[in-house]
Design brief:
This protein is α/β, with parallel strands linked by helices and about 375 residues long. Helix content is about 40%, strand content about 15%. It has 12 helices and 11 strands. The strands form 2 sheets. A 6-stranded mixed beta sheet has the order 6-7-8-9-11-10. Strands 2-1-3-4-5 form a 5-stranded parallel beta sheet. Helix 2 packs parallel to helix 4, helix 4 packs antiparallel against helix 5 and helix 11 packs across helix 12. The longest helix has 23 residues.
Length: about 375
């Protein structure tokens, strides 16, 4: 079965398990779940891994799931751009809200591009390239026999999926090779020496995939196309721009949204309507985090910054977060306040000198500060 046909059948495959009465065949449903940001790496890794397993383990069913509501798919402009090239449209895909609220315990889950999930008790396997979140209590819910592939050195989870793909002769798919190749090129910022978001394994994988495709690919042209697709927010509202690449930091007391923007945070808040958009984006939370990244179309230079915005009169939490992030050493984030203070909702705006540090390095730091803060509040309440 080809990749396109596999994707076309995923919704009907899921439907068989959701039908009443349930199917009587002795098959296991495996949901291959990307992370909730649903960026290109997460989406393509989930789709291609599900296809690979479906061809190698045909006694069971594998369904890739994009971990966002269906209505948010238009926000993922670079994902839509690449899948359209393969003839895959939104109607073929399975999204988080296509799943029932409660999954049958016989369903198994494979996490891709993340390793913390509310479905931890159902997880059978993990593919991820971010550092282990040792302090997260969800890890304790993982089954003891869960297989974990965790490779923080990699610039892209697609490299890890590519290694799985190339480990056996079957399946063969030009679409899979093309999608994995493009994802790694974008994730590594086309192997930019300044960004240093890649390892030797990422580079080797891209070269092997190019051999598979048996064609000369101008990586710079490909990267420019993907960068432009990702940065194309012309049809999005400011709230949608904030939701385009969003992760939620979960604590016992709140859920804090962290936006990843294809432009600098300082430039975003300078736009008309930015305050209303931030308040809408952060509704239900006391805090909003914004990570900005701008890649120059001329020379590929990367700039990063960060904004911490309180939606309450409380300012001490922001000060604590700023101090912790500025002083953080492993890795050194090299965050420092902008020389020209940005006046926006009493927020804290930090320029980032270490452009190699990404959200996977910053998010755990913010989460730990929030946990410590809530623990102190709990102690005071006693």
């Amino acid at each position: 079965m080809g990749f396109l046909r596999f994707v076309q059948q995923t919704r009907s495959t899921l439907g068989r398990y959701l039908s009443s009465p349930a199917p009587t065949v002795e098959r296991t449903l495996n949901l291959v779940l990307g992370n909730e940001s649903c960026d290109l790496d997460s989406a393509i890794s989930a789709l291609t891994l599900a296809f690979i397993y479906s061809q190698r383990q045909q006694q069971n069913d594998y369904v890739p799931v994009l971990n966002i509501p269906r209505l948010e798919y238009p926000l993922k402009t670079e994902v839509g751009y690449m899948l359209d090239k393969c003839g895959i449209n939104q109607s073929m895909l399975v999204f988080r809200d296509d799943l029932p609220e409660q999954l049958d315990e016989r369903v198994k889950v494979i996490l891709v591009d993340h390793h913390i999930s509310e479905l931890a008790s159902l997880v059978k396997e993990i593919y991820d390239h971010r550092p282990l979140d040792k302090e997260n209590p969800a890890l304790k819910l993982l089954p003891k026999d869960a297989i974990v592939h965790l490779e923080p050195e990699l610039g892209s989870c697609a490299t890890l999926i590519g290694e799985c793909y190339l480990a056996e002769d079957q399946p063969q798919s030009a679409d899979v090779s093309r999608l994995l190749h493009a994802t790694i090129v974008l994730d590594t910022i086309n192997f930019s020496p300044a960004a240093k978001r890649f390892s030797h394994r990422d580079l080797v994988m891209v070269e092997k995939l190019e051999q598979k495709l048996n064609q000369q690919i101008d990586r710079q042209i490909l990267f420019d196309e993907l960068r432009a697709a990702r940065a194309d927010v012309s049809q999005l509202s400011l709230v949608q721009v904030l939701r385009k690449d969003m992760k939620i930091i979960h604590t016992e007391r709140q859920q804090v949204p962290m936006a990843g923007l294809p432009l600098l945070a300082r430039d975003f808040v300078a736009q008309n309507g930015a305050e209303e958009a931030v308040r809408e984006f952060g509704r239900g939370s006391d805090l909003v985090c914004i990570l900005g990244m701008y890649v120059s179309p001329d020379d590929g230079e990367v700039q990063r910054d960060m904004a911490l915005i309180s939606l309450t009169p409380e300012t001490q939490l922001i000060k604590t977060l700023q101090q912790t992030l500025v002083e953080h050493e492993k890795p050194k984030l090299d965050l420092f306040p902008y020389e020209n203070d940005i006046k926006f909702m009493n927020g804290c705006f930090l320029s980032q000198g270490n452009v190699q540090a990404t959200r996977k390095h910053i998010l755990p730091v913010v989460r730990q500060v929030l946990l410590d803060w809530e623990e102190r509040l709990g102690t005071c309440n006693c």
